Amino acid sequence: MNEDIKNVVTNALEEVFEELKDNALDFVENTVFPYVDAAINDFEAAQTAEAEQSASGWVKIRAKLINTGINLVWSVAKKVVTKILEKAADDETVPAVK
Fold first, then answer.
1. Helices then strands (H, E): number in the chain?
2. How many of the other CB atoms lie within 10 Å of CB of 51?
3. 13-22 residue pLDDT tens
4. All structural domains of the chain with their residue ranges
5. What is the pTM of this model?
6. Are 44 and 64 within 8 A, CB to CB?
7. Coil, helix or strand at residue 95
8. First to last CA, the chain
9. Most CB contacts within 10 A, which of 42, 49, 76, 82?
10. How confident is the model at residue 79 (pLDDT cuts 50, 70, 90)?
């Protein structure tokens, strides 16, 4: 039974990856990025709400620094991932020269 489940899962994953192979950039841009963007927005909202309720200037500064850092890292990560996927797509379409 475990072997059957393993085979079913393996076959399903292979089908999904085969479908994604040609559309990886679209999938990442339209599915993964929006989820991460939403998670970051939720985190920022929580940080901002905490900072607004605090009387401490440090908490307000910390929240801004954390949010700025996260946005900076995520912006760079999105650009890097997009460039890598674009390059991979270009490499697949260019015929190999021997």
1. 3, 0
2. 19
3. 777 777 666 6
4. 22-93
5. 0.69
6. no
7. coil
8. 47
9. 82
10. very high
